[in-house]
Every structure is written in C-alpha cells, then in structure tokens.
Amino acid sequence: MNNITINHDSEFISGLQDTLNKEGPFSSWELFEMAYQAEQTTMTKEFYGLRALEFLPHMEFLPHQIDTAKQAIEHMNGRAILADEVGLGKTIEAGLILKEYMLRGLVKKALILVPASLVNQWVKELNEKFYIPAVAHRKNYNWEQYEVVVTSMDTAKRNNHREVIENIDYDFLLIDEAHKLKNHKTKNYEFVRSLKKKYCLLLTATPVQNKLIEIFNLVSILKPGHLGNYDSFVKQYGKDRKKINQDIYLKQLVQKVMVRNTRKDTSLNNAKRHIETIWVNFTEPEKEVYNQLDTSVQPFSTFSKITFLRELCSSREACYLSLQKLLNKENQELLEPIIEEIGQLPHHAKAEKVVELLKDIGDQKVIIFTEYRATQLYLQWYLQQHGITSVPFRGGFKRGKKDWMRQLFKDRAQVLIATEAGGEGINLQFCNYMINYDLPWNPMRLEQRIGRIHRYGQEKDVHIYNFAIQDTVEEHIMKLLYEKINLFEQVIGHLDDILSELQINDLESEIQSIYNESSSSGEAKIKLDNLSSIIHNTQNNLQEEQQQYGNI
Amino acid sequence: MAISNLNTFLKDYFRAHHCEILQNDNGIMQIQLNEEMDRALMNRPFYWHYIKKMGHPGDPMKLTLITNPEQREQNGEWIHFGSPRLHQIINHLKNNERFTKLFQTIETTTNTALHPWLVVNIKISYIGKQKKDELFSLGLNLVNGAMKTEMMEKLRQIDLQNAISDYCYTISPLIKINSGFNRIKAVLDDYLSNQEHKWAQDSLKALENEVELLKHFYQGNDEQDEERVQKEIDEITQRYSPKIDLSVINGGLFYLNPSFTTTS
Fold first, then answer.
1. Which residues of A touch B135 (CB under 8 A)?
2. Is B124 on the interface with A (CB under 8 A)?
3. Which of A5, A203, A305, B231 has the smallest count of CB within 10 Å of its CB?
4. Tell me: the pLDDT tens digits for B7-37?
5. Which domain of life is it from (chain B) (predicted)?
6. Spatial contact of A508 and A442, defined as CB atoms under 8 Å apart
7. ipTM over 0.90
8. What is the C-alpha R_g of chain B?
C-alpha cells in the first residue's frame, strides 16, 4: 500500500461549491442519472480481457488476431514484436491493441511510424475500422496538437521535427516494417531508442531469417537487457545466425516479447485446397500470331513484348488495345498487319475452355480472376453468349459498389469476374471454386486471390484451377515458377521468408528483368529455371532448420 | 446499471434536451435537433457564427440514428457502443452533467422538512500493469452524518425535481460541504488501505525485474549512457509503478425526506 501513489480528485468539490454559490446551472435528475449510466458503460470493470471487441461490432476478428492482442497486452505488458506472416493481419492486431489501451484510458498520445507509402492507408484503417481519430502529419501541424499521429520515419527524424518529437512523452509508439531497424548503428535505430514511450509495438513480417544480432537489436528497443547486453550476447551467441538453433532457452526468451502466427497454425487450415492446372492449346491461327509477335524484334522493347505476349495469352482484346495505343507513324508498317490479324482471330481458346469447365462444375459459384480489364469485359460478354450470368469486380470500385456486386454474385449470378484481389477486397467464403484465368507473376498476389475464398469461415474444400497455354510464356511461368517449387502446396506460406533470405524484394520485377535481359526465350527459360532452383533450395534449407528447432 | 437499451437511452437523452423525436420505428430514430443540441453535436460552428451575424435564427438539423444493426443499410448513422457519435454524446453528458441540486418530490399539505445530502459518484482506477475501474455512489447526510452506499440505486426509487415542493422546507447543513467531502474521502481511503492490492505487488515485481535487466544491459558501458539509462528507467517506472486515481464523475446536494433512509 505504501508503494502505491494515490491521486485524489481536488477539483470536484470546489466546482460544486462554486455552482451552489452561483445558484446553478444544475443538471436535471434525468441527465445527471444518464451521465452516471454513461460512466458505468465506459468504465473498465476487469484487469483482463479485451473490451475493444464490444466496441467494434462491425469488425470480424479472427481468433489468432484476438489471441495476439491479448498476449501483447496481458503477458507482454504492451511491448511486443508482432511478426505474423504476411496477410494474417498485423495491422488489425496493432489497431486492436491501440484501441484497447485507448478505451482503458492508458494511451492518449500515440506516434505511428510507417513507410511513407502506407501513411494514408494506416490513417484510413485506424479511423474506419477502429474509430481511432488518427491523422497524417502535415507540414504545418504541430506535433503536440493531435493525439494520434501517423507519419514516416524519414519525416519524423528530420532535424526540425526530431527535437520536438524527442521531447514528447508518448504513451504508445508503433513502428511498421521494423526489420529495417535491425542494425543498431543506424540513425533510425538511434532515433527510435531516443523516443520516450510507454507501450511499443514493432511490426515485421520477416524476423526469422534475421541474424541473431538483429533480433537482439529489435528486442533491445522493447526490453533492454532481456537478451543480455551486447557484449555478453555476442560472446555467447556470436553474430552468426545458425547459433540460434543451439539454444532453446534463447528461443523461449524471444517468444516472451514476440508473437508470430503462421498460416499453418491459424484456423485457416481446415478446408483443403485442391489445385489443378488446366492446360490449353492455342488454335492454329492464334499460335501463328503469337509466334509472329514473339519473333518480331522491332518496333518494341523486350519489356513491352513480353507484356504483349502475356496479354495475347489472356485475350485478343487485351493485346489488341495495347498494340493500338503503341501505333504511330514509324511503326505503322510493322504493327498494322499484326493488329489486323489479332482482330481476325476467332474466340480465345481459354474462353472456350472456361465455358466447358463451368459446365462441368455445374451449379456452383465460381470466381474468375484475370490480370486485364479488357479480358474481364470480353469474358463477361462471352459468358453471356453462353447463357452464364456474371458480375464484374474491380479493386477500384467504391465500397458500396463492391458490397453490391458481392450481393449480386451471392444472390443472382453464377460467376464473379475480378481483376484485383488485393487490398480492400471482399470476403467470398460462400464460394469455393476459383479459376485463375491468367497467373500473376507475383505469387503473393495469387495467395491474396486464393485468400478471398480460402479464409476463416470457409467450410468446404476449395477448388482452384490454373489456366496456362502450352508453348507460351505462360508455360514457362507455370512449370518453372509454380510447379517446380511446389508453390501452391508448400512454399506459399514461407515465400516472404525465402525471398527476404535471398534479398529479393519483388519477385515480379525479378522475373520481368529476366525477360528484359534475355535475348531469346530459351535464355529466359534457363534463367527462370535457375531462379526457381535457388528458391527451392532455400526453401529446403529453411524447412530443415525449422523442423529441427521449430519456428520462432 | 450501465446503458442496456441504446434506443431508450438516446430517446431519454434527446427528450431531456427538449428535442422532438420525429420518428422511432424498428430501431431507426429521427430527431429534430434544437439549436443547443445542433451546436453540441453537429460540429458546425461557422454556420452558427454566420447565421447569427446575419440576424437569422438558424436552422437546426435533423439527425437519424440507427440502433438496430439489421437496419444499418438504411439512410442514417448506425450508432453502437463503439461509434464516435455515442462517444460524443457520452462526453457531452460527462462534461455537462457534473453538478446538481435536487429536491425530493413530495405531495403534502403539511409542513415537511427535507434533509440535505451530499451525493458523490466516484470512480476509482487501479493502474498497474493493467487497469481496472470501480464505481461508487456515496451519500452523506449533512445533518446527522449518516453515510449510505449505492446512493444512485436508492435515488432511482423516488421522484426528484429541481424546485422544492409546496409545504416543504430545507434544514441547513450542520456539516459543511467541504468537510462532508473529506469524510467521504476518509471512508474511501480506509476502504483502499484494507485491500491486499495484489495487482500492485505484481506490477512492482515486473518493475524491479525490468530495471534489473536494464542495469545488466548497460553493465560495463561508459558514463555517457547514464542519461539513456535514466530515460529507460523512467519509462519502466511510468509503465509499471502502481497508482490509484480517484475521480468524481458527478455529484450534488440532494434534499430528501427524513424517511428516505428508512424506506430504502
């Protein structure tokens, strides 16, 4: 009892005395009583539990998100590394934690440091999903003015801002993409260490393959000394990452400040995935045009050529429209005949295959994903010709239109044709068939697509059909990228780990540059093959390690 | 009793502020605001500034609130326990309904004395690793010093009004309001010192633990780290050192029939 500080209310009684002296204003009984009710409603009755849940009835949280928030608050006392795999909702977990602290009155002043490109998205999500009045930092705002400010590390650490920020006592500090803080000698690291903070969350998708010393540095922001001091740590564990495996004790220590959910251990795993590749053959005229495009060197760069080839594999329309855009006086002679021929092509081989497949599937809802708007329109028309009802879906639709399309799909149409899966997508658990009409080069995008239907709440097995045309660029990608590394079955959950181990930021641009820098499709094939071999090996290595010592 | 029926709560709130409820069916409530409530809730100070300058009475808005989640696709604002609108209303209540002076409504033709009571609704917050609140409603008879708990529950049983009823008169307090409040404070202090406060011990343990780790972390480092160490110790202290905050939600002077204590 002696160690507890007690703060009495010193204002109330003089306020009451003043009001009595001035003969008012006095509350009516009704309003006086309602204010009491209001307090009973907002007060925190228990030390434990998440009150935020009852205040966010419009949100559907996944069990692992709720567990993570509880763990971070109740067991880690508000200082934690959230290290879920991509796509499991770290932002949601962080928002839930912040909301809980704000509801309990423990956090007023919060600073949220995220990559510049994500500032607006964070502001939007905190406001819309959590009713947290977060604002993005603007030039003329001052840092004290707003309670919850979102900004980028670069803005915050600029000299004129830095001094102000360092003097503010923050109740809550959040850093997204915290793996960038792994080096304790950098300015960013120094800056973060200098901030005054009560609670602190570090968000990162890729801590596992970090060197041990990097984990040490992250933990030292949250809980200095938790892993010992720098010298003793380096002496005991070295700077070599392999040593983490020797120490189960160290792993347990790390787990006290870090939560990492993987796809494997979330409940997303109950419904099985059945994945099937559907090979399609071009018709003779289609093949001819394809080869003609492939072998022509002029008038475009390899970069655009590969794009046109991909488009042609998707639909005549997609390729036709892009070529038209390219048309000018100089290349007229070369391009016009090809454009002409594309215009003459019969129906696309894939579209016919889709109709066939839809008839086999029968009376079930199906989502078709394509990379191209033109293909989307063409497919809608083509399906209609065959008496199949469909609705379109694009990432650019406004929220209301998205919901409307989802409803139409649920109640009226058999097929939903979508061009974009990512970001603010919709949840379509009532559907369990998906056709990937063309494959994205970035497997994470594919995972996001599948995530629309294979997610929490899906009760049936999920069927996924991947379309690819033989003897085309699609075959390379399918065989070399997707099939060789068992992408669908094994790799996808670990892909972010693997790529970061290989220091590849963006697989899509990696493949793009392979094509750009190759003079023939044969050369491109070999390079692609090499790339997938590397991915495959890294995957095996990582897996071996994890089998031995468990995933952190 | 926390708010259990949001629709009733809102209806009472707007009625108490003299706003007309235009419609209230199936969880959709339309309210015609008056100027006071428009100013309080609609966040348009420039409009009111401008319209008053022009010598115009102004045109308060209508507000449509949806309390039934199944109707939330309709036009209007879905209001629920987490919605900003409800929090605005709750804050409006908490900020404005702090003080009162009320009289028990009594229908009588004989002279009746009313005793003054100091009623205080007070929240105790226990803040350590985690936080929890407790709410007390205490009443002190300023004539004879009797003290009652759960005052609000008891007051709900009777009728109260802002003006004194006919044939009633008030007895002057023998205990001053200030010393009355001190008596209440003393009772609460007593209550607090009789608890074990395991939460505070846990919190202190965590505090010591982390400070120890911290010292180990900086062991053998040079002097210049001292400032940094102090900063980190401050942070840990701020996060874990146990404290208890007492804050009065609202309170006031209540003139009640002497039979009040015996009947309830």
1. 39-40, 43
2. no
3. A5
4. 999 999 999 999 999 999 989 999 999 999 9
5. Bacteria
6. yes
7. yes
8. 26
